[in-house]
Amino acid sequence: MVVVMVVLIGFCFIVAMQYIRSILAIRSLRRQLEEIERGSHMEIGVGCRQRDVLELCRQLNRLRQYWFQNQRQYEKAEKQLKQNITSLAHDIRTPLTGAAGYVQLAQECEDSSRREHYLNTADNRLMELGDMLEELFLYTKLTSAEFEPNMCELQVLPLLSECLVGLYSQFEEKGVSPEVDFESEGFQVRADEECLRRIFHNLIQNGLVHGKGGIVIRQRGCSLFFENLVSETSLPDPKQIFDRFYKADLARRKGSSGLGLFIVKELTERMGGQAAAWLKGQMLTIQLEFPEVG
Fold first, then answer.
1. pTM flag (> 0.70)
2. Long-range contacts of 5-13 (CB under 8 A, 24+ apart)
3. Is 190 helix (H, G, I), strand (E, B) or coil?
4. Are 253 and 210 in contact (CB under 8 A)?
5. In whole angstroms, what is the distance from residue 282 CA to residue 100 CA?
6. Chain segment 50-66, per-residue pLDDT in tens
7. Quick one: angle between helices 112-142 and 260-270, nearest 10?
8. Residues 6+ apart with CB under 8 A from 100
9. For the segment 80-106, what is each residue's pLDDT rounded down to a tens digit?
10. Positive or negative CA dihedral for 186, 270, 289, 222?
11. Is the dihedral of CA 134, 200, 145, 256 positive or negative?
């Protein structure tokens, strides 16, 4: 009987000590979590060797690491968003300020020919602004899950020709002409007409604004290739060229929101196609590949 009592007392003592150690470990964990909540980057640790407590400590450290990674990503994204908003505000303000300046010059000018020149220039600046705002509006639509393209079979060459004609004045201003080479003039794709029109407009506009020289547009099989020379001082990174707000030209040339090629890739993929880009020397090539029709 005495032996049994000694064993029971010893067992109770061991259980009590384990309980006390567990309580102390939990209190230590709580204090460490409070420190982390106040901004500490300390790693959580306990002196207790109980398996469940050690496993709890490991899980808390994994959660801590996950939380810190999310926090860093959030801070990075927030910083990038602020930079993008600042850049967009600058991009929008530039043509608006330019248009206002030319309108004021036209109002003060007595020479009719120069007045017409000022008003035409102001009109061009407002068109740049309108195009940028349209891209921003389309960008907000693309980020919505509700966006659905209206698919139908379209003949590509007439639609592309319309886009080229619409930008004729810009080609004339740069003193260049587009080169179009289709192996099949009846080439068709299944796409949304307005989306395809926007894709062509953005690609041609990108070549005109950021390119150096003319634009070559080729059709081979189910693919379209848009090629143009780029300046040696502003070579784009093909891996980043379709990213939102990406600009190879740090001088931020006029008429660009940094969303044009992002919209090209996003619209192409929404319609079941693929977009790719590569650089060979100073020649930038952007390929659009569409699913076969029929």
1. no
2. none
3. strand
4. yes
5. 36
6. 777 777 778 878 888 88
7. 40
8. 122
9. 666 666 666 766 777 778 888 888 888
10. negative
11. negative
Number of H helices and E strands in the chain, helices first, is 7, 7
Query: In the numeric block, which tokens belong to residue 199?
Result: 């894709």
Q: How far is the C-alpha of 153 from the C-alpha of 196, rounded, in Å?
A: 11
d(CA 227, CA 93): 31
Burial 272-284 (b: 16+ CB within 10 A, else e): ebebbbeeeeeeb
DSSP 164-178: HHHTHHHHHHHT---
**Tell me, what DSSP letter sits at residue 222?**
T
Rounded CA-CA distance 216/70 in Å is 44
**Residue closest to 270 by CA, chosen among 83, 141, 172:** 141
How far apart are alpha carbons 28 and 13 in whole angstroms? 22
- Rounded Cα–Cα distance for residues 202 and 192 (Å): 15
- CA 194 → CA 177, 185, 258, distances in Å? 24, 20, 20
Question: β-strands 211-220, 179-182: how paired?
Answer: parallel
Place of tokens 């929404």: 270
